[in-house]
Amino acid sequence: MPNRFLIVLDDSNQPYISRELGRLDKDSLQLHVFAHEYWHYLHNVSTVAGFKSFSIEQHHVAAFSAARQGLPVNVEDRRSMTVIEYGLYGDAVPPDWPESDPSGSVAVTGVEDGEDAAPYGGKPTVVHHVCVDLSAAFEDGQTHAGTMLFGAIALYEFLAAYVEDHVLALKGQASTDTLPIVPYRLAPLLVDHIAGKVDGYFVAALATLALLDVHPGKAFVMFVRQFAEERDHGVSEEVALASIIKRSQDRRTAVFDTILSQDLPDLERVHSDRGLSEFAVKYYGSMFRGLLELRREEPLFDLHVLLAKPDGLFTLFNNVDPCNMLQRYPGDDEIVERDAIFGFDNTAPDDNGITPSIAAKAFHAQQHYVRAHLLETGLFVDAAPAPGRCPFYEACPLEVRTQTPEVCRSSPWNAFPGAQEGCWYSLGVAATHSVVKIRVRPRSEG
To answer: Cβ-count burial of 228 within 10 angstroms (0-12 exposed, 13-18 middle, 19+ buried)?
Structure first.
């Protein structure tokens, strides 16, 4: 999901990050996949869609915290939040398709705009969306039609795949054909349906602009239609894109202003005096402020930096630190510290021993904790949720991992000691329950 703060890299024969090096190797054979995942994180903290996702998650946390304290939960608000969230993300694939990926060509056969009412907090809220009709051939030899909600997921995945292809091209390699067409290649198909063939860069530019809108799916279709109109008047693709950037500037500015002057300060106030939660929201808040201001002046700064020179990706790495990366290595899951987590922000710890890397781990754990208890209705389970493993289980170097592995393996939310020390997951649980003075407990020596 786009609101996570940990990237997990698989245990391929060529690790993305070698344990000995402790950092990303520019010559890594897996650089293109690292770039793909980094692009997701960059959009998490530099786009309107990313902020909206961040905000939705905090609404879930607040509601869950209230429910755990025995406070009443507004059922209509919780249901509306699921509509708002679905409207933002959309589908990864048509829900009515077979479970396997298409084995043949995929075609867009129709596009329809729509909206849903989702009253929230006593205010009328309208969620704008776009439904896309698809037809594809499958391994069963049949052609199946399907309809899906087109939203941020399809845009995020297309852009990450575009960046992955770019990094491969710099190495003289062909683009990967292992990614499913839907959702990774859906945006170009939609553009082709509406506007005909368009160069990949301009599709990426329009997708990025769409993520700077509160309704990214609808915005993308609108921009593509405008792009087609501009081109039909005989202008070049470059001029058409420049026109769309200019035409959408006032709306983009208004949205940025609302986030920076109202929405983000409101989130920071909610987390005030909540210890690690306050630290994390302020940390990510500073990133949103800086990067949205940058997008105000240069909406496509990420694409421009990436494409400007061969090492553009590393220029972005230097300007916007990657989030924590969990590198998996071969071996049994029960081996303590089989895997390793690498943090890229070297800021010194605060008075409570908290660094951005620790805050990000706990913030990720908090969302894992809340999601484990969240139902599709937007409400929360009353009893214990289904077993779930701590996301740091195979990489955790802390004392609790060796003392109570069965808890970490199946119900990490029960690792919270209610005391002054705990693990990364405990910090996330503690912040959810407003326990603020808690430190990371290291592994005992000897």
So the answer is: middle
